């Protein structure tokens, strides 16, 4: 049986990954380590934590004593590090927290793994390692900076981050690679494009737009909406991590993306039209609406659900223009290709939100409301 330490798995991608592993593998044990920031919600894992196959520990990846104790207790075979401060806008507000969690937290995990997994030294002084161990770092395409109108990020593209978030993720990648080169630690890294899907915290573009439409609120588009992101359904990302973790050679870096570039304006328009179509064809979805004006005949009016909801607001500072991944390496080496097209994935995602309004309510109560007011007040 393999034991996994999965950090940050009360958040968006980590929780999807835990569910994916529990669904697709039998002989395993997962320990989730998550400090439960505003972005982490234990309710997301409520059906998964059973204290046998899936155990939850609340704590900080930067807490040396705790992480050492977990390594001693559970003898992990794999570490998959999702834990991070992940929102670019918040990193512009408070960069230091991003360095603390994303850089120092990652380094702490690496060091605890190094101590637990090394057995001695070889003739040249390099540590010798227990077999079958792997530290996997979940990184982002944002480490490569921003593209112009053409071209793609490959694994050879120089690292050139711009935001405090992406700079911290780059620093984390470099320290992971430093452990590979200095100690011959068995590591791997995936750099994925923007994910979307269930359990995405509604401060990120797609779930924020869905939430605002349900509330009849304006839809804030930064700048002129021409920035391009390369969107991937979260389960395809999970499958890529699974493949790299279990099948890639030690020390490899893989880009993950599905050639699905869209401008932000396209995304917002698509979400509006898809939601309206779903509400028109499946009246039960109108129950999710908080804003329910009535038409003259007493039925729920949906005519307001159109592009007039869009409002162009002040641009993000240092806003990267375009991200686009070249996934040739992971396709060639590991046979990975995305399975969910955007047309299917976006409907599935919107339907998930329409069916899980209590989850949205739970994760956005409290601190998030203050954040939203602060973040968008100065943009108007
Ligand atoms: P998220 O913000 O939804 O979740 C992050 C989780 O980490 C939360 O549960 C939070 O409580 C936890 N966490 C934060 N600080 C911690 C600490 N000090 N100790 C323990 N847990 C802590 O993020 P996400 O969107 O699921 O992203 C997960 C990872 O994937 C991140 O490393 C991110 O950089 C990377 N990534 C995200 C995307 C994307 O589109 N969302 C794309 C590529 C890569
Ligand atoms: P986001 O979901 O924050 O992801 P990232 O910054 O990691 O790519 O944003 C995706 C894009 O959408 C990005 O170009 C910023 C833009 N955006 C808006 O236009 N309005 C919004 O309210 C948000 C949250 C993002």
Fold blueprint:
Layout: E1 2-7, H1 12-24, E2 28-34, E3 54-58, H2 64-74, E4 78-81, H3 88-93, H4 95-117, E5 118-121, E6 127-129, E7 134-140, H5 164-183, E8 187-192, E9 195-196, H6 205-214, E10 219-222, E11 228-230, E12 232-233, H7 234-247, E13 253-256, E14 261-263, H8 264-281, E15 310-313, H9 328-334, H10 342-355, H11 357-364, H12 367-377
Parallel strand pairs: 1-2, 1-4, 2-3, 4-7, 7-8, 8-13, 9-12, 10-15
Antiparallel strand pairs: 5-6, 11-14
Helix pairs in contact: 1-7, 2-4, 4-5, 6-8, 8-10
The structure holds nicotinamide-adenine-dinucleotide (NAD) and thymidine-5'-diphosphate (TYD).
Describe this structure in words.
The protein is α/β, with parallel strands linked by helices. It has a domain at 2-197 and 232-260 and 318-340: NAD(P)-binding Rossmann-like Domain (Rossmann fold, 3-Layer(aba) Sandwich). The chain is built from twelve helices and 15 strands. It has helices at residues 12-24, 64-74, 88-93, 95-117, 164-183, 205-214, 234-247, 264-281, 328-334, 342-355, 357-364, 367-377, and strands at residues 2-7, 28-34, 54-58, 78-81, 118-121, 127-129, 134-140, 187-192, 195-196, 219-222, 228-230, 232-233, 253-256, 261-263, 310-313. The chain is globular. 42% of the residues are buried. The structure holds nicotinamide-adenine-dinucleotide and thymidine-5'-diphosphate. Residues 7-8, 10-14, 33-37, 39-40, 60-62, 82-86, 101, 105, 138, 140, 169, 192, 194-195, 201 line the site of nicotinamide-adenine-dinucleotide.
């Amino acid at each position: 049986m393999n034991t996994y330490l999965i950090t940050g798995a009360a958040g968006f991608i980590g929780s999807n990954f835990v569910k994916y592993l529990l669904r697709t593998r039998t002989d395993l044990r997962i320990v989730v380590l998550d400090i439960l920031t505003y972005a982490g919600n234990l309710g997301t894992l409520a059906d998964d934590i059973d204290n046998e196959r899936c155990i939850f520990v609340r704590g900080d990846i930067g807490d040396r004593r705790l992480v050492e104790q977990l390594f001693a207790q559970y003898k992990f075979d794999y570490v998959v590090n999702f834990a991070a401060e992940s929102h670019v806008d918040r990193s512009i507000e408070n960069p230091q927290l991003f360095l603390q969690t994303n850089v120092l937290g990652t380094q702490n995990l690496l060091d605890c793994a190094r101590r637990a997994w090394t057995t001695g030294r070889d003739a040249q002084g390099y540590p010798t390692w227990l077999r079958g161990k792997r530290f996997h770092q979940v990184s982002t395409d944002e480490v490569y900076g921003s593209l112009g109108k053409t071209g793609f990020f490959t694994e050879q593209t120089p690292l050139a981050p711009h935001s405090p978030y992406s700079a911290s993720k780059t620093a984390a990648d470099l320290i992971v690679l430093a452990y590979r080169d200095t100690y011959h630690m068995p590591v791997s890294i995936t750099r994925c494009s923007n994910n979307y899907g269930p359990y995405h915290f509604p401060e990120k573009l797609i779930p924020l737009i869905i939430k605002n439409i349900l509330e009849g609120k304006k839809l804030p588009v930064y700048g002129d909406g021409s920035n391009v992101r390369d969107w991937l359904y979260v389960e395809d990302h999970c499958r890529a991590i699974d493949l790299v973790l279990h099948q890639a050679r030690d020390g490899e870096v893989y880009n993950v993306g599905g050639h699905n570039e869209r401008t932000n304006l396209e995304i917002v328009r698509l979400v509006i039209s898809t939601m309206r179509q779903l509400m028109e064809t499946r009246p039960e979805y109108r129950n999710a609406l908080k804003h329910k004006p009535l038409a003259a005949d007493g039925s729920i009016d949906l005519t307001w659900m159109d592009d007039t909801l869009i409002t162009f607001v002040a641009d993000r500072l240092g806003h990267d223009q375009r991200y686009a991944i070249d996934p040739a390496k992971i396709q060639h080496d590991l046979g990975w290709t995305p399975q969910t097209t955007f047309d299917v994935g976006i409907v599935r995602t919107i339907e998930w939100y329409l069916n899980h309004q209590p989850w949205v309510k739970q994760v956005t109560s409290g601190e998030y409301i203050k954040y939203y007011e602060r973040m968008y007040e100065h943009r108007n």
